[in-house]
């Protein structure tokens, strides 16, 4: 089985989708001839032609709007928003249009579009190349939100997202594109080579949306994480010696609530980790669900370890980033109660 | 240098309530004064078309100039009928709204040609992306009045299952894309639809409508950019009916240039047309459609017209414009003008007109009766409340199933 980095796995997913379904069209800023600023669409225009893979103007609202129109025609557009931080001009088209088209037409029209976007911090991107805006979109009825943590999932989830008939936001933690990242920014950069989750089939497969994955089985405490934070949580559990049950949510909407409830009911403790700002973040939703469904099993208050409620600061990236030390401290606090 | 101290310029309409309405600032060129260029004309050669006004019918109902679409008497009568039916439908729906049978309604009085003539110039498999005052498209495409009324009543036969405010129609069968309610969003979507058709290599096109007020939205700019970049086979209509609720067209930039001129910076052929002239609207739309089907790309059309009624049933236009404004609008009424033309050309009479009006009133009345038997917003049948959880996603996710149970519906 080939070993792929996450960016190669994402490229492979689109390659497979283009080959299997003639209605798949890919466009976005710099995605055509050049193959994207992160190389996600490299060689795809050369392989599938300009009619199906092409550059778009710097117009996020126009990219999503035209994708919706193509979807209404019968196409299956996969578009790239170059950085999640740039998605806001398209918010009206995503929130008011793509999300509600099926509902407002009684199922007569829908938006089978996938919106890929590099997201999250850890690359010195400052406040315009680091954000994690998933909470803005998980709040909207009609959207699905997917955030992979490794190459195998990234390919399988992206294929599932493309084949899904609902609009899917596919946020790609850009710090994971070329290797896993446990938050130790001062250590040498790791590569995906040799990683068990970097073994990616070259052919078609799907990882279903709405199914979480236990990445480490444990009995002492449950950690709910997704994206980059899965690796940070694994590192924190190892370094603190706490026997954590770590769940990689993989998709936030639809959410695998059963997996969460099963774990927390068993461990009685829960720490939620995300890189996005805390207030009204997806962690708040998770905490509320855990207390609704697991209240009598809880032995300690739920803790959230998140980005601070500030813009992402360029020079203070590692003070902002919820690294393994902060996660480890939270684990120790919660298990000591 | 000292700046002129007149303060910030706030555009004001020519007249306000209590004042004598005066449209003398609007230049109405004679019918037939604008030539019809070949469809493959270099857009730079027809820039003046964005500032002139294409008109076919003169004040006496006679056809003038090169833009005569050459329609048969039967086609003209069909157009007249669709416009009259639209007006009769509007009249009834406002009445039932006043009776409390629905929450809201929007008339298209005075703007019937904008929708009906365009729809008749398009092919049935062309996709329309309308805004909220083009009900005439559905009527011109013979979409059943009962279906439209069911939507306005949100009743048990409403295809949109009671989810949308009245008049936000949607009909895949009639090639009428779902009306959003958020302004401008459909304009850029229409360009995407046209891009897909072009990528498929067929000769279908999309047509979109936007009000002059909403051209200030970003989506207008997105639409023109994408249409221009990809030379998408689409017709971009701007319905300049002079008013965006209470804001006159100057608040959208109409004081300093025409709305058609917006297209020039994008290299899109842009035409300004008398929107109350059925023949002119038909001719210009046909020209644009031929361009799109020939692979010549997009066309922008400003339809110069007038919103005779309030913005909606929730609006009282006498608060911001003279009540008598409509009566002095210099471009007249689209139904009266086509009627006059048909009479002058010997294909119509006052008697036939009156007979048709009565027939259409009866058709609307019968449709209304049938639709009301399926329920209205306040009485009778509607969709089961449990269906409000359907269609959020293709398959209902677990959290919505749980909420449906919780709702007890």
Please describe what this structure looks like:
The complex is a heterodimer of chains A (337) and B (409). Chain A is an alpha/beta fold and 337 residues long. Chain A folds into two domains: 6-176, Rossmann fold; 213-335, Rossmann fold. Chain A has twelve helices and twelve strands. Chain A has a seven-stranded mixed sheet, sandwiched between helices. Chain A has a five-stranded mixed sheet with strand order 7-9-8-11-12, with helices on both faces. The longest helix of chain A has 15 residues, at 6-20. The relative contact order of chain A is 0.13. Chain B is of the alpha/beta class. Chain B has a single domain (27-378), classed as Rossmann fold. Helices cover 34% and strands 8% of the residues of chain B. In chain B, the strands form two sheets. Chain B has a five-stranded parallel sheet, with helices on both faces. In chain B, helix 7 links the parallel strand 6 and strand 7. In chain B, helix 2 packs parallel to helix 7 (278-293) and helix 4 (145-153) packs across helix 9 (350-373). Classes of the chains: A alpha/beta (337), B alpha/beta (409). At the A-B interface, helix 3, helix 4 and helix 5 of A face helix 5 and helix 6 of B.
Summed up:
Chain A has 337 residues and is α/β, with parallel strands linked by helices. Chain A is 35% helix and 17% strand. In chain A, helix 9 crosses helix 10.
What is the element layout, followed by pairings?
The complex is a heterodimer of chains A (337) and B (409).
Chain A: H1 6-20, E1 24-28, H2 44-48, E2 53-55, H3 60-73, E3 76-80, H4 91-98, H5 101-104, E4 114-119, H6 134-138, E5 144-146, H7 151-163, E6 168-173, E7 213-216, E8 221-225, H8 228-240, E9 244-248, E10 251-253, H9 257-267, E11 270-277, H10 282-294, E12 303-307, H11 317-320, H12 324-335
Parallel strand pairs in A: 1-2, 1-3, 3-4, 4-6, 5-6, 8-9, 8-11, 11-12
Antiparallel strand pairs in A: 5-10, 7-9
Helix pairs in contact in A: 1-7, 3-4, 8-12, 9-10
Chain B: H1 73-98, H2 112-121, E1 127-129, H3 135-140, H4 145-153, H5 185-200, E2 206-211, H6 218-230, E3 234-240, E4 243-244, E5 247-248, E6 270-274, H7 278-293, E7 299-304, H8 334-344, H9 350-373, H10 398-407
Parallel strand pairs in B: 1-2, 2-3, 3-7, 6-7
Antiparallel strand pairs in B: 4-5
């Amino acid at each position: 089985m080939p070993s792929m980095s996450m960016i190669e796995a994402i490229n492979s997913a689109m390659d497979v989708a283009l080959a299997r379904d003639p209605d798949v069209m890919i466009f976005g800023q710099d995605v055509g001839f050049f193959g994207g600023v992160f190389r996600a669409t490299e060689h795809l225009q050369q392989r599938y032609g300009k009619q199906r893979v092409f550059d778009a103007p710097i117009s996020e609202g126009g990219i999503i709007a035209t994708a919706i129109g193509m979807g209404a025609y019968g196409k299956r557009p996969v578009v790239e928003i170059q950085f999640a931080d740039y998605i806001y001009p398209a918010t009206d088209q995503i929130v008011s249009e793509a999300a509600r088209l099926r509902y407002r037409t009684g199922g007569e029209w829908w938006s089978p579009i996938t919106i890929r976007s590099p997201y999250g911090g850890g690359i010195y991107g400052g406040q315009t190349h680091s954000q994690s805006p998933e909470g803005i979109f998980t709040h909207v009825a009609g959207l699905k939100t997917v955030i992979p943590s490794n190459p195998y999932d990234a390919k399988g989830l992206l294929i599932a997202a493309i084949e899904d008939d609902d609009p899917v936001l596919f946020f790609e933690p850009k710090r994971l594109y070329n290797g896993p990242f446990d938050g130790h920014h001062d250590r040498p950069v790791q590569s995906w080579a040799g990683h068990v989750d970097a073994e990616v089939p070259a052919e078609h497969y799907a990882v279903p949306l709405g199914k979480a994955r236990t990445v480490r089985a444990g009995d002492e405490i449950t950690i709910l994480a997704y994206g980059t934070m899965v690796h940070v949580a694994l590192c924190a559990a190892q370094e603190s010696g706490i026997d954590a049950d770590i769940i990689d949510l993989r998709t936030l909407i639809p959410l695998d609530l059963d997996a969460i409830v099963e774990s927390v009911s068993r461990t009685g403790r829960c720490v939620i980790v995300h890189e996005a700002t805390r207030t009204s973040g997806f962690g708040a939703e998770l905490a509320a669900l855990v207390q609704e469904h697991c209240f009598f099993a809880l032995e300690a208050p739920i803790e959230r370890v998140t980005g601070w409620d500030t813009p992402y600061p360029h020079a203070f990236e590692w003070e902002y980033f919820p690294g393994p030390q902060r996660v480890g401290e939270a684990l120790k606090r919660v298990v000591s109660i | 240098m000292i700046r002129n101290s007149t303060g910030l310029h706030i555009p004001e309409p020519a007249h306000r309530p209590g004042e004598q309405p005066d449209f003398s600032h609007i230049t109405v060129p004679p019918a037939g004064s604008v030539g019809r260029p070949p469809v493959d004309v270099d857009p730079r050669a027809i820039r003046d078309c964005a500032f002139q006004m294409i008109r076919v019918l003169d004040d006496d109902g006679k056809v003038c100039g090169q833009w005569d679409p050459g329609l048969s008497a039967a086609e003209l009568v069909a157009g007249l009928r669709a416009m009259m039916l639209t007006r009769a439908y509007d009249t009834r729906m406002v009445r039932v709204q006043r009776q409390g049978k629905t929450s809201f309604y929007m008339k298209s009085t005075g703007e019937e040609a904008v929708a009906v003539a365009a729809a008749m110039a398009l092919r049935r498999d062309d996709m329309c992306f309308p805004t909220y005052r083009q009900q005439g498209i559905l009527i011109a495409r013979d979409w059943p009045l009962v279906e439209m009324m069911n939507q306005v009543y949100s009743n048990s036969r409403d295809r949109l299952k009671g989810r949308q405010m009245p008049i936000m129609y949607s009909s895949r069968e009639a090639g009428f894309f779902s009306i959003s309610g958020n302004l401008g969003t459909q304009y850029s979507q229409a360009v995407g639809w046209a891009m897909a058709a072009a990528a498929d290599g067929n000769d279908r096109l999309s047509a979109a409508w936007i009000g002059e007020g909403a051209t200030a939205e970003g989506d207008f700019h997105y639409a023109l950019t994408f249409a221009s970049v990809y030379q998408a086979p689409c017709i971009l209509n701007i319905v300049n009916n002079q008013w965006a609720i209470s804001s006159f067209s100057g608040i959208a930039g109409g004081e300093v240039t025409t709305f058609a001129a917006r297209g020039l910076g994008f290299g899109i052929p842009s035409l300004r047309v008398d929107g109350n002239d059925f023949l002119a609207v038909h001719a210009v739309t046909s020209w644009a459609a031929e361009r799109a089907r020939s692979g010549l790309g997009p066309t922008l059309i400003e339809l110069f017209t007038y919103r005779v009624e309030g913005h909606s049933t929730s609006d009282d236009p006498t608060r911001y414009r003279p009540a008598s404004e409509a009566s002095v609008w210099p471009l007249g009424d689209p139904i009266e003008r086509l009627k006059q033309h048909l009479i002058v050309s010997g294909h119509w009479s006052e008697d036939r007109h009156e007979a048709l009006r009565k027939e259409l009133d009866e058709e609307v009345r019968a449709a209304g009766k049938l639709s009301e038997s399926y329920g209205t917003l306040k009485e009778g049948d509607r969709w089961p409340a449990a269906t409000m959880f359907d269609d959020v996603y293709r398959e209902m996710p677990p959290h919505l199933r749980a909420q449906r149970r919780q709702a007890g519906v």
